[in-house]
Design a protein that fits this description.
seven-stranded parallel β-sheet; Rossmann fold; alpha/beta; 3 domains; about 525 residues; six-stranded parallel β-sheet
Length: about 525
């Protein structure tokens, strides 16, 4: 696999970099010339589809500022918005385990999302995926066999141990090969700083972060969401392979982790839970890039941790991060809320959605109930979603449904026909500034809403932790599903109660949050030199 140098040089304006293991010297010089431009480079690393919009916004802001040259790294098959990068001349690279990008986008195939393109996997990626799948499914079959036949514990231990040992060694070898690409990338770009979303992950990202740390490249963690250890453990608790009390767990694996890697365990509901699978621990430990404190985002490789508010600053201090490393800079998306309100009035927003201007706007951030396997079937999922939507529309006010980027719009479109509501086909941040009441199920957008002066209701009866938002007296937490109909009705239609909630919102705004001044991005960029 080689880089077509002539095509690449003729396409410099497009600024698509091709990072491969056989990076030839001639092409490398072209890349260095393209990247340097007498400016120091800044990397914005999007680890998944959810973090891509935030990193895109950062890269665009850095480009607009003109002091540094941004490079957007996209992990995964979804590459964001190439048209936008082309228009604004932003460098971007795919650095996925199974994917390379070539310099000719003609070979790419449109994905289900019109704003993304999917790149075909090379042979190396397919081979790795096939081997990993064989190991994975073999393990599952054997595990089920032992479960039903109730084999002796010694046999179970051997199966579990051999599976994770084999896969761990394979993952280590692959990681060492993949590290060559990461090293060449960093040697070429020579970044001054790197913006990341999390510093607790495994795989190639762990190697990338640890290598940046070794090279004294400043790592700035953009806090796109609040990750409390309990919230993280909630999902892992349900996975038997991550629990120390699992019937299939090997006592010697439990012993070694407890003795040599105690911070990899977190006690949740009385059970020791691992952050990563045993094979991942083996691979990352051998590669010397294992995050030492995986349950605390920002305590591993990051030099600076960005937080929304002063309360989170204290919370992260309590989790062991030094105060001087935690900066209250607000959330980048709150600048979008400020910009929206500046450019479009509430009356205009209502008119676009054909909303009644004499009624309140209620925004429901749709909870990912089945998507996160909170319930076993889609039928149960729709019972809960319709339960929420029905009682919101029963209030007689304007109801707007906001979706997480991972959610499939087509699945939810029927709600617009069945109920008097609209689904917003854009970012949730675009709706918050125009809302009177916002309903979430433990989403960090709760805090954006309070900062924007919106009354918030948090649903705690689906299992997500909402205790981390309790410091805001204005946020109404509901723990009993049966309380939902009465609370939404009172919040919306009891004007005296609604005004009381608004007063509490104003207090929380002054007590904990930065002003909604549109300067959060500026505060993020100032961290490069701080």
């Amino acid at each position: 696999m080689t880089l077509h140098h002539d095509r690449f040089c003729s396409n410099i304006k497009f600024s698509l970099l091709f990072v491969v293991l056989d990076f030839n010297d001639r092409a490398k010089k072209s890349v260095i010339k393209l990247m340097s431009n007498n400016k120091q480079n800044i990397i914005c690393y999007a680890i998944h589809r959810t973090s891509t919009p935030t990193m895109e916004t950062l890269a665009r802001a850095i480009k607009k500022q003109g002091i540094y040259e941004p490079t957007l790294i996209l992990s995964g098959d979804f590459l964001g918005n190439p048209d936008l990068y082309k228009k604004e001349n932003i460098n971007y690279i795919s650095l996925n385990n199974n994917t390379y990008i070539n310099s000719n986008l003609d070979n790419t195939k449109p994905s289900d999302n019109n704003n993304t393109v999917k790149v075909p996997q090379p042979l190396f990626g397919r081979f790795k995926a096939i081997v990993m799948n064989i190991l994975t499914y073999s393990y599952r079959v054997v595990a089920k066999l032992f479960e039903f036949l109730e084999k002796a514990s010694k046999q179970k231990i051997m199966t579990f141990s051999m599976y994770h040992l084999m896969r761990g060694l394979f993952s280590f070898i692959y990681l060492k090969v993949y590290s060559l690409k990461i090293n060449k990338l960093l040697d070429t770009i020579k970044p001054k700083a790197v913006y990341i979303y999390r510093d607790t992950l495994g795989g190639s990202f762990a190697y990338f972060a640890s290598e940046c740390k070794k090279r004294n490249i400043k790592i700035i963690l953009v806090m796109a969401a609040y990750f409390h250890p309990d919230t993280t453990a909630f999902g892992r608790y349900e996975n038997f392979a991550l629990r120390a009390d699992s019937w299939l767990r090997s006592p010697w694996i439990n012993y070694l982790i407890k003795k040599y890697l105690p911070n990899q365990y977190y006690h949740y509901k009385g059970v020791a839970v691992q952050y990563l699978f045993a094979y991942e621990l083996i691979a990352l430990f051998m590669a010397k890039c294992l995050a030492p404190y995986p349950w605390v985002n920002g305590k591993n490789f990051a030099d600076t941790v960005c937080v929304f508010d002063s309360k989170l600053q204290k919370d992260y201090q309590a989790l062991g991060i030094a105060k001087e490393n935690i900066k209250v800079v607000g959330h980048i998306d709150c600048d979008l809320i400020h910009l929206n309100l500046k450019n479009k009035s509430k009356a205009q927003f209502f008119k676009e959605l054909d909303f009644d201007p004499n009624k309140k706007c209620l925004v429901l951030a749709l909870p990912q109930i089945k998507e996160h396997d909170i319930v076993e079937s889609w039928e149960e999922h729709w019972v809960e979603i319709e339960f929420l939507v029905k009682h919101m529309t029963n209030t007689g006010h304007n109801v707007l449904l906001a979706m997480h980027p991972k959610m499939d719009l087509k699945r939810y479109e029927f709600l617009e026909n069945k109920y008097t509501c609209k689904i917003y086909r854009g970012k949730t941040a675009d709706t918050i500034g125009y809302a009177d009441v916002m309903v979430t199920a433990g989403s960090s957008t709760s805090l954006w809403a309070v900062q924007s002066g919106v009354v918030v209701i948090n649903l705690g009866f689906y299992g997500w932790s909402i205790e981390q938002f309790s410091f805001c007296n204005s946020i109404k937490n509901i723990y009993d599903r049966n309380d939902w109909p009465a609370i939404i009705e009172k919040t919306v239609n009891d004007n005296e109660y609604f005004l009381e909630r608004k007063t509490l919102v104003e207090f929380d705004q002054k007590q904990y949050f930065l002003p909604l001044d549109g300067k959060n991005m500026q505060r993020h960029l100032e961290l490069i030199e701080s």
